Amino acid sequence: MxxxxxxxxxxxxxxxxAAAALVADGDRVGLxxxxAAAAxxxxxxxxxxxxxxxxxVPTSQASQALARELAIPLARMREPVDIAFDGADLVVPSGxxxxxxxxxxxxxxIVDGSAGRFxxxxxxPKISTTLDxxxxxxxxxxxxxxxxxxxxxxxxAPVRRPGRSDDQLAIVDLTVPAGSDWxxxxxxxxxxxxxxxxGLFRVRTEHVFVGAPDGSVTTLAEYPLPA
Length: 227
Prior knowledge:
Blueprint: H1 3-20, E1 28-31, H2 35-49, E2 55-58, H3 61-69, E3 83-86, E4 90-91, E5 96-98, H4 105-114, E6 117-123, E7 136-141, H5 146-152, E8 159-160, E9 170-175, H6 182-190, E10 195-198, E11 200-202, E12 208-211, E13 217-219
Helix pairs in contact: 1-2
């Protein structure tokens, strides 16, 4: 692993530690999916090993496996969680966020949306002034409807990913034209029968933790915007 990757890993670890530190005894904790979320799960595992009592609600089979490896007690998604943490593909200063590169967007929506506090863990490269810098909106689709969705959204060049999600849904990536109003486009996509969810989230900027390689953490609300 190169120095750049090491720096990113340290940044995710810093954000993960900051999130895990906010878990209180007895909390139900939503466990996100991806590298930054995994750093948070590992930090939570260390707190559990030190005596913290909590229950994790994982958003994917991968986060479930990691939590089990770390002896974090697990539960199914029933009542809302107290706190959840997850990563993101890109976040902009307004709090609009793209998620779903890992294909867990539906479970993430369910768990994260129920949380009393939902924390997003990122590092500097995940922050931009515009979602156009990412340009892709992942969507989860009932497999039966994939071709129908493609016919309904031809201008977004739908590309189905291989395989299926943990919920046996198809994951389709849409290419969003530069300058689009992402929220208007998101509403249009959601109106197509067969679309279960999309990867567009809106989060509170004070709940976006931006880790740095030096171990410091800043919230997006106070983060200096990229040029």
